[in-house]
């Protein structure tokens, strides 16, 4: 089922932006990267941060 070109998507007007605080940007710039690259970057930047906590076993990125 296709819409007429006269009909706009309800998302086109982005009505939720009206509820954002003034300091909140309507859009954010994201660096595009693979999940593997994201994990490597995070491990370099936050080596002592918790990497995972699974069934009582916790490891940092450095570990």
Secondary-structure element order, N to C: HEE
Gross morphology: elongated
The largest sheet, given as strand count, sense and whether it forms a barrel, is: 2 strands, antiparallel
Strand-residue proportion = 5-15%
Separation of termini?
52 Å
Can you give the mean pLDDT?
88
Put simply, the count of helices is: 1
Q: By helix and strand content, what is the structural category? A: alpha+beta
Strand neighbour order, sheet with most strands: 1-2
Q: Specify the helix fraction band.
A: 10-25%
Rounded radius of gyration (Å):
20 Å
List low-confidence stretches: none
What is the β-strand count?
A: 2
Short précis:
The chain has 63 residues and is of the alpha+beta class.
Structure notes:
This protein is an alpha+beta fold and 63 residues long. The protein has a domain at 31-63. Helix content is 17%, strand content 14%. It has one helix and two strands, in the order H-E-E. The protein has one helix at 35-45, and strands spanning 50-54, 57-60. The protein has a two-stranded antiparallel ribbon with strand order 1-2. Strand 1 and strand 2 form a beta hairpin. The mean pLDDT is 88.
């Amino acid at each position: 089922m296709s819409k007429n070109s006269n009909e706009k998507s309800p998302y086109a007007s982005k009505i939720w932006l009206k509820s954002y605080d003034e300091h909140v940007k309507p859009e954010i710039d994201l660096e595009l990267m693979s999940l593997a690259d994201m994990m490597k970057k995070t491990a370099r930047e936050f080596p002592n941060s918790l990497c995972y906590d699974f069934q009582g076993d916790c490891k940092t990125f450095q570990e």
